[in-house]
Amino acid sequence: MTSTFACRTLRYSFSTVVFNGNKSAKKILSSLRKEIEWFQKQSDLSRKPGLGIILVGNNPASLSYIKKKLQACEAIGIRHELYHFSEDIQEYDVLSAIDNLNRKDDIDAIMAQLPLPSHIDKNNVINMISSEKDADGLKLNSNNLDPKANILPCTPAACLKILEEHQICLKDKHVVLIGRGRLVGQPLEQLLSKLSPAQITTCVKETGDIKQHILKADVIIAAAGERQLIKGKWIKKGAIVLDVGVNKGIPGIDPTKVVGDVEFEEAKKRASLITPVPGGIGPMTVSMLMYNTVQIWKQRRMQELLELNGQLQTSNFEHDSFGITVSNSFPPESSIYNYLYI
């Protein structure tokens, strides 16, 4: 399996494509549901994948994200255990809950919803999650990320999937990343540098040179976490714009509306492809979380079967639900990366 994008030249005579994250995520979830069903039929050990979720407090955005993740779990057949703690819970109790999930055989993967209250150390919480059950891929060393690995951080994986889906060729293109956070910017910078010989520039909002880089960018990935930091008029005609930011609305105009890091309406007039907020990167990130959970479950199930049977016994069969044929194979070689790297 190669790790290169099928190429499509960026177009400069175009009608803007507004990416539909809900539609694309639905396709991925459908494939994952079929994969779970197929895998369960191959043995008597047919328990569902299990995802443990840690949520602290009642942050409206976090509650919304968790609701979508629970809906995705139910749609594809993942059993979930939600530990919802009050805002004033002590860090020790959160860590104890994660330790309990680490020990549970029927919990394959674990995630902690961020952000956490200020009195709880985010790093302690992430580090408490077993590396073998890290559904978000947050414990992975961003300097050693392998684009062909089964598990990648969810939001960077979502960005790569969108680029692949639209056959964006990054060779010799100028890619500008806005933000260098642990969740998106750092891992995405490493992944892109290994995938394609693109020119990659990473900016942070404090440097003050964002505008100059945006003016020359062929691909813009915004993950700064600042409302409409990137002005639409800065964007080069035909550029690709992926907006990872999720911010509160504009005070005095529409404070309840969720907006991204990019000035969407103006940017839409100039970009050839743009992701909206909401409805763009978000649904794809949820689908990547489901993908990671399924892959961890499969790895653990195979180990359980090996321990139970001594060796895997399989019969001849064919399976082409994902556009492949498998014979005398267990499990099927089907993954989101059959879509990512073709």
UniProtKB/TrEMBL annotation:
<dbReference type="GO" id="GO:0035999">
    <property type="term" value="P:tetrahydrofolate interconversion"/>
</dbReference>
<feature type="domain" description="Tetrahydrofolate dehydrogenase/cyclohydrolase catalytic">
    <location>
        <begin position="20"/>
        <end position="136"/>
    </location>
</feature>
<dbReference type="InterPro" id="IPR020631">
    <property type="entry name" value="THF_DH/CycHdrlase_NAD-bd_dom"/>
</dbReference>
<dbReference type="InterPro" id="IPR036291">
    <property type="entry name" value="NAD(P)-bd_dom_sf"/>
</dbReference>
<protein>
    <submittedName>
        <fullName>Methylene-tetrahydrofolate dehydrogenase/cyclohydrolase NADP-binding domain protein</fullName>
    </submittedName>
</protein>
<dbReference type="InterPro" id="IPR020630">
    <property type="entry name" value="THF_DH/CycHdrlase_cat_dom"/>
</dbReference>
<dbReference type="GO" id="GO:0004477">
    <property type="term" value="F:methenyltetrahydrofolate cyclohydrolase activity"/>
</dbReference>
<dbReference type="InterPro" id="IPR000672">
    <property type="entry name" value="THF_DH/CycHdrlase"/>
</dbReference>
<keyword id="KW-0378">Hydrolase</keyword>
<comment type="pathway">
    <text>One-carbon metabolism; tetrahydrofolate interconversion.</text>
</comment>
<keyword id="KW-0521">NADP</keyword>
<comment type="subunit">
    <text>Homodimer.</text>
</comment>
<keyword id="KW-0560">Oxidoreductase</keyword>
<dbReference type="InterPro" id="IPR020867">
    <property type="entry name" value="THF_DH/CycHdrlase_CS"/>
</dbReference>
<feature type="domain" description="Tetrahydrofolate dehydrogenase/cyclohydrolase NAD(P)-binding">
    <location>
        <begin position="153"/>
        <end position="300"/>
    </location>
</feature>
<dbReference type="Pfam" id="PF02882">
    <property type="entry name" value="THF_DHG_CYH_C"/>
</dbReference>
<dbReference type="GO" id="GO:0005829">
    <property type="term" value="C:cytosol"/>
</dbReference>
<keyword id="KW-0511">Multifunctional enzyme</keyword>
<dbReference type="Pfam" id="PF00763">
    <property type="entry name" value="THF_DHG_CYH"/>
</dbReference>
<keyword id="KW-0554">One-carbon metabolism</keyword>
<dbReference type="InterPro" id="IPR046346">
    <property type="entry name" value="Aminoacid_DH-like_N_sf"/>
</dbReference>
<dbReference type="GO" id="GO:0004488">
    <property type="term" value="F:methylenetetrahydrofolate dehydrogenase (NADP+) activity"/>
</dbReference>
